Amino acid sequence: MKLTPISLIFMLAATLGFSASVFASPDLANGKVIDQKKCYACHAKKSGFGNGDMIYTRSDSKVTSLPKLKSMVAMCNTELRLDLFPEDEADVTAFLNKQFYKFKP
Q: Which SS3 state, helix, strand or coil, does residue 47 take?
């Protein structure tokens, strides 16, 4: 198969497009929407107080670093079958970190 200049351009564009999406910045708005739709109600029930945000601010939090936050979001996604894509996990992690934890990246 002989590659023409046009096919090379398309291949390069596809490769660069994929690379750009891998390194894209997290979408905080998407992270907030996912948190509200898929996380808040479960956390509200688990807290016993009807406030889903309390789980993020409790004094005995298991989340003590950004890697632990990423791990916890991934674990919830897997265990609860939330069907989040890796980009969604990154968005939720970034939103929760900015809103509650404030860990340095």
A: helix
| Residue boundaries of the structural domains of the chain | 26-101
Tell me the CA distances in angstroms from 28 to 48, 87, 91, 96, 101, one per residue in order. Answer: 27, 11, 6, 9, 14
Q: Please name the residue ranges forming H helices in the chain.
A: 5-22, 28-34, 40-47, 54-57, 66-79, 86-96
Q: Could you tell me the two tokens for 44?
A: 């509200």
> Side chain identity at 30, as an amino acid letter?
N
How far is residue 81's CA from residue 13's CA, in Å, rounded to a whole number?
Answer: 34
95 close to 28: Cβ distance less than 8 angstroms: yes
Rounded distance between C-alpha atoms, residue 84 and residue 77, angstroms: 6
For residue range 37-68, what is the model confidence (pLDDT) as tens digits? Answer: 999 999 999 888 899 999 998 899 999 999 99
